TrEMBL record:
SUPFAM superfamilies linked: Acetyl-CoA synthetase-like
GO molecular function (one): ligase activity
Organism of this sequence: Polaromonas jejuensis
Name of this chain's protein: Phenylacetate--CoA ligase family protein
Gene3D superfamilies linked: 3.30.300.30, N-terminal domain of ligase-like
This protein's record includes keyword ATP-binding: no
Pfam families xrefs: AMP-binding (PF00501)
Matches recorded under InterPro entries: AMP-bd_C_sf, AMP-dep_synth/lig_dom, ANL_N_sf
Domain of life: Bacteria
Lineage: Bacteria, Pseudomonadati, Pseudomonadota, Betaproteobacteria, Burkholderiales
Keywords: Ligase
Domain AMP-dependent synthetase/ligase intervals: 134-282
Length: 417
């Protein structure tokens, strides 16, 4: 497993950055011309000027709830079911449409390995000429097709196992002898346990690519004890592959077809390397050209290069959700409001709103890391809290570096007992 999928994985970071940033202006112009939603979102933006990460960071972040709202509004009006985000229309260039919870509709184009999953499968040890047992759903959601198209691009045959029918899954694995499994880690555990119960050996199932849910080290080790090397990947129905695990087992390496930023939750402002924040992804897919799409997931950049020889940036993997919206005394408080308060004071480095007490007897404390604390600053911050949230809150001034690096902007510390 030391070989790489292609030369893109081992090019110099400078080459990669130059190539992606050279493609960025064209992708933005394409989105403005062919995806009406981005024509509106990026109105007045000259795409030809967006050729650096600094320029990219000035563009607005579009988050999933905003994409959903645009889709719903268009559908109610009898318009585009994709809300103006797809550059494709029904017909030969869009063989499938999928639905994710919400409901959000996603197009699938005809390009080989449309979701770019072959790279993650190769890193997990799958090779051309093998059979892969695919237990992701083929119903409504794109997961099954995402993996199947990637497997075909890799040169593999696929058994479309889908979900459920555990005994039949075991029988198919025993008789077809696949090289491995693709699906959720929890369902693989169920299949392995069912095989043991049925006293059916699955000697060829020695590797797995899992996604769709957490893959804790305890489950990875449980599978390893049974002869299965499990690797995880991070992908979404909107963006396709974002990052994947390698044999180094040190974080997840970013895919070659996306530009990833990590921003402070509730904002579009990039954080310092190593700081936890929300993953914001710009895809270079011309069919569904999402620009600065907020995933809502938290992660952080891992320093250094991957021991596998891949040179792209690594992230720590999924570290929670960025949308920490909390209801306090009947009012919703959003991470963007905390960012708005902090932005009003140049001395503030970082802020974290802690909601404590018991339900119906809430209290808010804004913990603030400040480079300096001029007289009266705490009082002025308190006034800003009330101005922005319409709620009263106390202020706690802290030294730089005091707050944990966990991506939390709002911490709900209330007792619900």
């Amino acid at each position: 497993m030391t070989t790489h999928y292609d030369a893109l994985e081992v090019r110099s970071p400078a080459q990669r950055e130059a190539s992606q940033l050279a493609a960025l202006p064209q992708q933005i112009a394409h989105a403005q011309a062919h995806a009406p939603a981005f024509a509106a979102i990026l109105q007045g933006v000259d795409g030809s000027t967006i050729h650096s990460r600094t320029a990219l960071a000035r563009l607005p972040v579009t988050r999933k709830h905003e994409l959903l709202a645009r889709q719903q509004a268009e559908r109610r009006a009898g318009g585009d079911p994709f809300g103006g985000f797809s550059a494709l229309r029904y017909g030969a260039l869009m063989p499938h449409v999928f639905a994710s919870p919400g409901t959000i509709y996603e197009p699938e184009g005809t390009r080989k390995d449309y979701w770019r999953m072959a790279r993650a499968m190769h890193a997990a040890g799958f090779r051309p000429g093998q059979l892969i047992h695919n237990s992701f759903s083929y119903h409504f959601v794109p997961a099954g097709s995402m993996m199947e198209t990637g497997a075909h691009a890799l040169g593999c045959t696929v058994f479309p196992g889908g979900t459920g029918q555990t005994e039949q899954q075991v029988q198919a694995m025993a008789e077809l002898r696949p090289a491995g499994y693709i699906g959720t880690p929890s369902f693989l555990k169920i299949i392995v346990e069912k095989a043991a119960e049925m006293k059916v050996a699955l000697p060829t199932v020695t590797r797995a690519l899992v996604s769709g849910e957490a893959f804790p080290p305890s489950l990875r080790d449980w599978l390893a004890e049974r002869g299965i090397a499990g690797y995880q990947c991070y992908a979404s129905a909107d963006l396709g592959l974002i990052a994947y695990e390698t044999e180094a087992r040190e974080g997840l390496v970013l895919d070659e077809g996306v530009i990833v930023e990590i921003v402070r939750p509730g904002t579009g402002d990039p954080v310092a390397e190593g700081e936890v924040g929300e993953l914001v992804v710009t895809t270079l897919n011309p069919d569904y050209p999402l620009i600065r799409f907020g995933t809502g997931d938290l992660s952080a950049v891992l320093p250094g290069a991957c021991p596998s020889g891949r040179t792209n940036t690594r992230i720590k993997g999924w570290m929670g959700r960025a949308d920490q919206t909390t209801k306090v005394r009947g009012m919703f408080v959003h991470p963007a409001q905390v960012a708005d308060i902090a932005r009003r004071f140049p001395e503030v480095i970082k802020a974290r709103l802690v909601v404590s007490g018991e339900m119906a007897n809430d209290s808010m404390t804004l913990q603030v890391e400040a480079a300096s604390a001029p007289a009266g600053m705490a009082q002025r911050i308190g006034e800003a809290i009330r101005d922005v949230t319409k709620l009263r809150g106390t202020v706690e001034l802290l030294a730089p570096g005091s707050l944990p690096n966990d991506g939390k902007v709002i911490e709900d510390a209330r007792s619900y007992q």
